[in-house]
Amino acid sequence: MKTSFAAAAALLALSSPAFAGTLTVCLEGAPEIFNPQLTSSGTTSTVLGQIYDNLVAVERGGANIQPALAESWDVSDDGLTYTFHLRQGVQWQSNDAFTPTRDFNADDVVFTFARMMDEAHPYHSVSGGSYITFNTKLADALAGVEKIDDYTVAFTLTAPLAPFIGIMAHGSIAMTSAEYADVLQAAGTPDAFDREPIGTGPFQLQAYQTDAIVRLIPFHDTWGEAAGIAENTPMVDAIIMAISADASVRVQRALAGECAISYYPNLADAPLIDASETVELVPAQVASSGFITFNQTIDKFQDIRVRQALAHAINMEPLVETVFNGMGHLTGAVVPPAFWGSATDLAPYAYDPELAKQLLADAGFADGFTTQIWAVPVSRPYMPNGRRAAEMIQADWAAIGVNAEIVTYEWAEYIQRSRAFEAEVGMFGGIYDFPDPSQIPNNYFTCNAEGTPSPSNIGHWCNAEFNAVMQAAGEITDQSEREALYLQAQHILYDDVAAVMFGGADQLMAVSTSVNGFTPAIFGSSRMSGVTVE
């Protein structure tokens, strides 16, 4: 990406102590793209969540849905039509290639969804055209998006969809500028739309040094500031986001005063942070799920006995104790226990190496086999130390004759390769972006009617019964009925050994005592508007 400042200047700004008014943030990975529609990465969303807005949002630090670019909405009696009444006077950001001539309106909402819905749309295939969240959650459910007037938009569904409003709060369903798209299309540079972002949020991109630094500056014409909403108002002169994959380095930068907010420190470093007089350990009770999946495009993993053997060979209790540093929980359920709809009766698969050996022999692998296990390269609430977890699994599998090579890549490449079904045994997971238990099961384990896996279903597991139960749960509104269906779906996944679940833990952040007004998000990404630095 073209940057506005020399890389050396950006690095100098990070290496020297932060001057008053600059918020420095240490991230565990780099943004893979600058259009939220094209990503489901939590790391990328941390950056883009400062730039873009949705029609609705999850309240900061809570679970309720509140207005954002839409001031209100109505739902038809049959549950098929949602009518959004848009906020007026909302300004768009600008850059060297674009100066907006009008405010945000219904044309932008229609454009945002037309790009994702219409394969003939001129922007549909730009940047690869992979709309991960939309394709997983809305593509089959959304019949149309209609402009009623400049500030009213109606969404029509093919069937009732209980989590629809929650889905609309997902970071990847943010609003984009139709006028900006037209300008770039006329200039012959449509791909810049996804590299040089224009949003309505409290901060805008000033510079990006690939895999090193993102620099954001305040957008004081944002609607939140205009409306006098403190938590949506930029209150610092700049945000410098430093990218460092090493959790220990992020902690050291926090302790040295180089980073006011550091994401995902090693859990083992918690006592070090607690002992500091200048940095606090801030927990966020995020809901997340982590797991390994077996690539069922590979013959041996299509045999349930092989999957059962590998599951029973993992000694999960010491793995969770070690990797989560005593702060995790054991589970066999894909929906975390903090959620309604979690199958809390599902325990991890019993550790039984002898049974595992017998299952392998029954499947024709009495002498074992060779495979790979991929290790998540960044620290996440659902997997704080992917390398260590992979090493422990590698040792457990060696005991039953399975030789597993550990493979990893830089985070963006890891995601891309995993979604291309390159991982034989893939380590993956997700954080809930809105308060409904459907998100992770739908994102990571469903297939569409044609049998195509959802983009994050890296194990290529397609189970018709599971898909039908998940679809039924999304089409009704009675919570007790939905809960029963989600319990059924989790048992189907568990019985077929589609994945082996890890226990999750709270997200930890190292936050300087000089920071005020920062509230970690429980769902989605944390916003830096409303935050000040002394």
UniProtKB/TrEMBL annotation:
Entry-linked Gene3D superfamilies: Dipeptide-binding Protein, Domain 1, Dipeptide-binding Protein, Domain 3, Periplasmic binding protein-like II
One Pfam family it belongs to: SBP_bac_5
Mitochondrion recorded as keyword: no
Localization, UniProt: Periplasm
GO cellular component: ATP-binding cassette (ABC) transporter complex; outer membrane-bounded periplasmic space
Protein name in the entry: Periplasmic dipeptide transport protein
InterPro entries xref list: Peptide/Ni-bd, SBP_5, SBP_5_dom
GO biological process, alphabetically ordered: peptide transport
Residues covered by the Solute-binding protein family domain: 64-449
GO molecular function terms listed in the Swiss-Prot or TrEMBL record: peptide transmembrane transporter activity
Organism lineage string: Bacteria, Pseudomonadati, Pseudomonadota, Alphaproteobacteria, Rhodobacterales
SUPFAM superfamilies in the record: Periplasmic binding protein-like II (SSF53850)
Primary subcellular site in the record, as a coarse category: periplasm
Superkingdom of the source species: Bacteria
Family: Belongs to the bacterial solute-binding protein 5 family.
Keywords: Signal
